[in-house]
Structure formats: structure tokens, C-alpha cells
Design goal:
Blueprint (H helix, E strand, L loop, with lengths): L2 H16 L23 E6 L10 H5 L2 E11 L2 E4 L12 H15 L12 E7 L3 H12 L8 E3 L2 E3 L3 E7 L4 H5 L3 E2 L2 E4 L1 H5 L11 E5 H4 L10 H16 L3 E5 L7 H12 L4 E4 L2 H10 L3
Parallel strand pairs: 1-2, 1-12, 2-4, 4-7, 7-9, 9-10, 10-11, 11-12
Antiparallel strand pairs: 2-3, 5-6, 5-8
């Protein structure tokens, strides 16, 4: 879709709402420190491509992040974590990097990822190939961890220590919607906010979008008034339905432009700020009392 078409789509969406390096393979995950520091959790901090850090999961948790992203490929019946097929490693599975360590941590902390913090930590699982088969294998694996997971069962959501949310290949949506019981939820798009019969938050608790497809502003100069209005409208619409909002592809290079965008996201009450810079976002949020 070219930029003109995208902006036309955004204009239409606004009207509808008004009515209501390829990175090198990361090092193998290291074990958690015996006595990890336990920072105050940052409810807006999302670790984009978390698995590319030296210690997947653990580095983000050491910085207080409460949302983490893992890309997965289904390969010979196993779910491997990687950004590109060339980076696939049979030892780097979703179980070994995320599910098993989260289970161990929740057990050690008596029912939560952060001791004493009862709000779920989000695990955003981005399906990179074959959405249907990959999701069905993921569902099979998640059943083994259901004691720590948020679950949808026959119309009711039961919150757990970890809430898996499925993103990536959109073909995963159909099998998920057909399930009476599931241990994961779906990552919606802006189109879901403008749908005539929008899916409930019990299915789509999160709405994510590419920042550059809706906003031209990259943090330099003032935020155009029309774009600020659009941002606030999108967020308030999602919040009115019990849904959270995240944008990817926001500026992420340290500096004034990134800080300006992050400040506008906070002012608009965007729920998850996306970054690869764990320390940078932690400093930014803590300095603002988030």
C-alpha cells in the first residue's frame, strides 16, 4: 500500500471513529542470576524483539518490562524463536527461552512474574510462518503452562501471571475465534477499531499498528494537531472497549526526537511503548514517574 493510500485509509478510519540490522543471531540465553534485582514493574514498557538481547526475557525483566515480544517459526513440529529463517537454532525454542523460565519465576514469586505485582505480564508471540498450524502447535504447548496463563473459557476471561497475545500471520485468527477454551488472545489492528461489529476485548485485548502508516511525524518539530487528535481518538476508542494500544516502528534512536514521540505517547495514554533500548526506555519512564 503506498503512502497516499495509507493516508486515505487513516482519514476514513478517523471519520468512522468520530461517530462513536537484520540483527545477528543473539547469544544463547544465559540463566537468570541467582538473586536478580527486582525493579518496580513498568506497565508501559514493551521489549520489541526481546529474544535479540543477550539474555532473552531476563534482561527485559531486570529493567522492569511488563511486555515482551518473541517471533516464532514452526519447524519440524517445534516452535523456534528467531527473526529470520537464517537465524533458526533448534536450541532456541519458545519453551526454553520463555515458557519454562516464566513458569519457574512465577512459582518462585508465589504466583506472579514480579513478586507482589498481580498485573499480568504480556508475552506477545509473533507468528512468522503458517499461522494456522503454528498457532495450533502453540495452543498445544500453552496447555502445559495453563496454571500461569490468562485463559478464555466459555465466554469468561481468567487472568493469570502471563497473558500470551498472538500477532504476526493473520491466519491464526480463525482457529482462535473458533475455540471455546484458549490460553492466548489476539493482537488486533486499527481496522478492528472501525469494524461495524468490533471483536470484544476478551478476544482482542490489544490493538497494534505501524506508527509510520498513520503518522508522518517522527519527533522533529511540533506534533501536527490533526495527527495528535487522531492519536488521542484511537487510544480513547480502544480504551472505551477495554483494549490496549501499541505502535511499532516509532523512532528508537536515542535523542530528542525519540523522547518527543515517547512523551506524546504517554500523554495520549498509549499502553505499551515499543523499544529495543531497554535501559533507555526504563530511564525515560522512571524519570516521569511511570
Amino acid at each position: 500500500m503506498d503512502r497516499t493510500t495509507r493516508r486515505a485509509a487513516v482519514t476514513a478510519l478517523t471519520a468512522a471513529l468520530a461517530g462513536v540490522v537484520v540483527a545477528p543471531p543473539a547469544a544463547q540465553a544465559l540463566p537468570a542470576p541467582r538473586h536478580p534485582r527486582t525493579p518496580r514493574p513498568l506497565r508501559r514498557a514493551h521489549a520489541h524483539n526481546d529474544y535479540l538481547h543477550t539474555r532473552p526475557l531476563h534482561d527485559a525483566l531486570d529493567h522492569g518490562f511488563t511486555s515482551l515480544e518473541a517471533d516464532i517459526f514452526l519447524v519440524d513440529g517445534e516452535l523456534l524463536v528467531a527473526h529470520e529463517p537464517a537465524e533458526l537454532d533448534p536450541a532456541r525454542t519458545l519453551r526454553s527461552l520463555y515458557l519454562d523460565p516464566l513458569l519457574a519465576r512465577v512459582k518462585a514469586n508465589h504466583g506472579s512474574v514480579y513478586r507482589g505485582h498481580r498485573r499480568p505480564v504480556q508475552l506477545l508471540v509473533d507468528i512468522k510462518n503458517d499461522g494456522v498450524d503454528t498457532y495450533l502447535e502453540l495452543h498445544r504447548q500453552l496447555r502445559d503452562y495453563r496454571r500461569i496463563l490468562s485463559t478464555y473459557a466459555h465466554g469468561t476471561v481468567h487472568l493469570g501471571a502471563v497473558t500470551p497475545v498472538i500477532s504476526g500471520d493473520r491466519a491464526a485468527r480463525a482457529p482462535m475465534e473458533a475455540q471455546a477454551v484458549r490460553h492466548a488472545f489476539y493482537d488486533g489492528r486499527l481496522d478492528d477499531l472501525a469494524a461495524p461489529a468490533p471483536a470484544p476485548a476478551s478476544f482482542i485485548p490489544l490493538v497494534s499498528s505501524n506508527w509510520t502508516q498513520s503518522f508522518g511525524w517522527q519527533g522533529n518539530g511540533p506534533f501536527p494537531a490533526a495527527e495528535r487528535e487522531l492519536l488521542h481518538t484511537l487510544v480513547s476508542t480502544a480504551h472505551s472497549r477495554g483494549q490496549r494500544v501499541r505502535f511499532w516502528a516509532t523512532p528508537d534512536a536515542p535523542g530528542a526526537a525519540r523522547d518527543a514521540v515517547w512523551t506524546e505517547l504517554l500523554d495520549a495514554r498509549v499502553d505499551h511503548i515499543n523499544t529495543d533500548d531497554l535501559a533507555g526506555l526504563e530511564r525515560f519512564l522512571r524519570a516521569r514517574g511511570e
